[in-house]
Amino acid sequence: MPVTTDIVATYRGPRTVFRRLLDMGEHEGRALAILMAACAIFFVAQWPALSREAHLTGQELNPLLGGSLMAWIFIAPLIFYMIAYLSQWILRALGGKATGFAARLALFWAFLAASPLKLLHGLVAGFIGSGAGLTSVGAIWFAVFLWFWISNMREAGWGTT
Questions:
Q1: Would you list the DSSP string of 74-95?
Q2: What are the DSSP calls for 138-159, one per residue?
Q3: Tell me: the pLDDT tens digits for 16-63?
Q4: What is the spatial distance between Cα 115 and Cα 132, in angstroms, rounded to a whole number?
Q5: Contact 158, 94 (CB under 8 A)
Q6: 3-state DSSP assignment of residue 94
Q7: CB of 3 within 8 A of CB of 141?
Q8: CA–CA separation, 161 and 159 (whole Å)
Q9: DSSP string of 15-64, one letter each residue
Q10: pTM
């Protein structure tokens, strides 16, 4: 299935989509592509807020975009790999049997599947600015991300003996 169709299907049943991804076999290139796509979307989601900040403060936009590019495309993937590694350790401590690949894919897919809400968050940040609306959209994004991640981790082997 196309990635966009899988993202929409994840909102209806995250475990079903994640099981289908796991059944495709372990392929680290696919996991990395999912993570990099999510990071690219998050980078694009920053554009409206960075444009607003540049306009309001009189700063140049290009250095702000360059810093965001460096953070999302080069640094964030390393951090996500560390988070996935720690989540696998936690699963193992709780008696789970998830593989390292399944733990990574669970995090990366949750991150990508929740990215449409991050795009909305970026638009709210750029057009409305900080306030209750931005906080609400951010909280919704975080809740959906956690829902996807926990569902994926359960499907990957959380708590199974």
A1: IIHHHHHHHHHHHHHHHHHHTT
A2: HHHHHHHHHHHHHHHHHHHTTT
A3: 999 999 999 999 999 999 999 999 999 999 999 999 999 999 999 999
A4: 20
A5: yes
A6: coil
A7: no
A8: 6
A9: HHHHHHHHHT---HHHHHHHHHHHHHHHHHHHHHHHHHHHHHHT--HHHH
A10: 0.91
